[in-house]
Amino acid sequence: MERMTMDNIGLQALLTIAGVIVAYAFVTNRLVTLTHRIRKRCTELLMDVILDERASADVVSLGKHMLDNLLDRRVAWKMALTFSLTVFRAKVLKKRKTEFPFTGDSELDHKLAVASIMFAISNFALSPLAAAVMIVQLLVVAVLSASQRMLVGLLRESIGHNVATGSMWTKVNDQHQNHGHA
Description:
The protein is built from 7 helices and no strands. It has about 180 residues and is mainly α.
């Protein structure tokens, strides 16, 4: 009797895992199909950028790299896994080095920016789990940024109120005078 229960649990676990895999494959297939137009337009934009004589060697190299990796699900995971590090580096370490090459031409830069967004959408469609990881990170950053702004706002308001009423300076002055006369 006990062995049969363990077999049933094992079978249920196996069927559940198989079901999750089939559902994930179905969702991925649907997303890949739905983003076909985006990939096609991304390819057109990247080709325009690559073939444009105004594009620098760095921009052409970036365009070729994006074309080569347009259907690589590993790129989605790389983006998802490095996002937190990039935000940490920019926000906490105050290092905002931008390695994204721009051409200086607004039309060409616009094409490159739109193609970059389409590139990200296309790659995340190839890996919904990586997209979910990225979305969770975006939400965490949004909440932390909002709470940071709220905290800074409260501190500014509090300090501003104390400065305006003189209460902060009165306390500092009183402490200074008491220590000087004691």
